[in-house]
Amino acid sequence: MNIDQIIGRMMGNDSMGDEKSALESWKKEAEENIKALEDIRKISALSDTLKDYQDFNEDDAWSAFENTLSQTNHKEQTSPFEISVAEVNNNTEKKTSIFSLRNISRVAAIAVIVLGALFIFNSQNSDEGFIGQDYASEIDKSLDVNLEDGSNVLLDAGSKMRSKDERTVSLKGRAFFDVARDENSQFKINLPVGEITVLGTEFTVVADDKHTEVFVEEGSVAYKFQGATYTLVAGEFIQVVDNNVEKLQMRDGNYSSWKNKRLLFNDNTMSEVVEALSRHFGKVVELKDVKLFKNCNVKTTFDNSSLEDILNEFSTTHGLKYEVKGDTYLVSSSDC
Amino acid sequence: MDKLDKNRFKDVFKKYYNPLCNFASTIVNDHKMAQDIVQDVFTILWDKRENVSINTNEKSYLFQAVKNRSIEVLRKRKNDVEVSKADYNSINLGNSGIEEEAKNYMLKEFLYKSIRQLPPKCQEIFVMNKVNGLTYNEIALDLDISVKTVENQIGKAYRKLRELMEGKLSEIR
Q1: Residue-wise pLDDT tens for chain B (173 aa)?
Q2: Between A39, A57, A94, which is nearest B169 by CB?
Q3: Among candidates A262, A284, A263, A266, which has minimal Cα distance to A275?
Q4: Which of B56, B74, B109 is the last residue of a domain?
Q5: What's the topology of domain A102-249?
Q6: What's the CATH number where B139 sits?
Q7: Is A9 exposed, middle or buried (CB count within 10 Å of its CB: 0-12, 13-18, 19+)?
Q8: What are phi and psi of A323, to 5 degrees?
Q9: Interface predicted TM-score of the whole assembly (ipTM), two decimals
Q10: Is the entire prediction scored with pTM above 0.80?
Q11: In B, which residues are within 8 Å of A232 by CB distance?
Q12: B130:A101 CB<8 A
């Protein structure tokens, strides 16, 4: 019997017990359904607020905390040289999400960045006789690659990668790796200078013959060079210039701006800004006289803008003047 | 260091660490800074443990301490006493007290942990939709499945989450 009939019968003078209880159970079911829908709406609304929710890994944090308890002094994490303090970029890209829930099924990512115009593999690292898969991105577009082991690589424009076997690649350029976790097999990245091994994490690597940078976003990574191994955890950054290794805390929120083309400045000084611009565009952007810009603070976001667009915007807002010489942009004068 | 004390402390630490970090991060907008703040608060708490009884309402205590410290960090960053309007909005100095804010974050934490208990495929689809904001069509394309499958998985996710969060849902207005 459908509900119309039940109601019709019930409202009639000779309604019987059957219809009444059918109506009752329909009513009960409806109430349960209403409650269910209400619950689901609540869950949905609450889930919406989880967009920026992060996993801060309480287990690791407790281990670290416990260690400091057993020592009398607290650990010192910040090094004397701190790169600019800027707002952490909270943007999550649709393709490679940094939201850690997603990473349970994926895993870590390593971003490898290579500076420099030469993209010829260093003869030290190319193995003769090995047959691997070659990947190269175009000069102005990123390339998304899925590796055999389930790892995913986002190759930045103008980068090259060769996969040696299921868990080893060579890279020259800049890329972001999402490495599938395999505790039995380390993932290895051969760089022009040094090599990286990881079980599964997220980090960025920049590597060419002269300059190497490794920045860990999540998890931990081992960087090996000249017999020494450096372990980095999230937020840490290593820089190798002319065989000198420096380990620092990365404070620049725009470090990974190349991935989603967004530069976010929140009350940054002009020095911090030109450093982020230099890194993002791979050019040299300098202030002619730092003193002139002492009180210049920048609070804007640039999405997909060219360097010229950004500098022109600054000439309007901060009275900047700049001159270009090849790859160098010299910024002078300001209204600050 | 009394063994019992430390174990109890560990439980409190692990229970509140994640929601506290997220709470701090909302205010200071910096994940690393947020962790530093929370760790500082726990360190101070540990140092004071003989003198402080946090048995009742440890939740409010912790959230208030983290909030205070976060605002302090914000102030130092701005270099003056005035905190911008945008920050006020995120700090929520308004009517709902720390109790309300704490409850809110604990709920988020519970949901977060519940989502992690969903079966892998179901979880991935749910996260792609609700957290990453992808449409069913986009998800279907990305994972190479039908929209119908996406719908089913989402429905399944909600059903399971409802089961996992039974009892907690009445706390949400």
Answers
A1: 445 578 888 999 999 999 999 999 999 988 999 999 999 999 988 887 766 655 557 888 899 999 999 988 888 877 655 555 555 555 554 445 888 889 999 999 999 999 999 998 999 999 999 988 899 999 999 999 999 999 999 999 999 999 999 888 887 76
A2: A39
A3: A284
A4: B109
A5: Jelly Rolls (2.60.120)
A6: 1.10.10.10
A7: middle
A8: -130, 145
A9: 0.85
A10: no
A11: none
A12: no
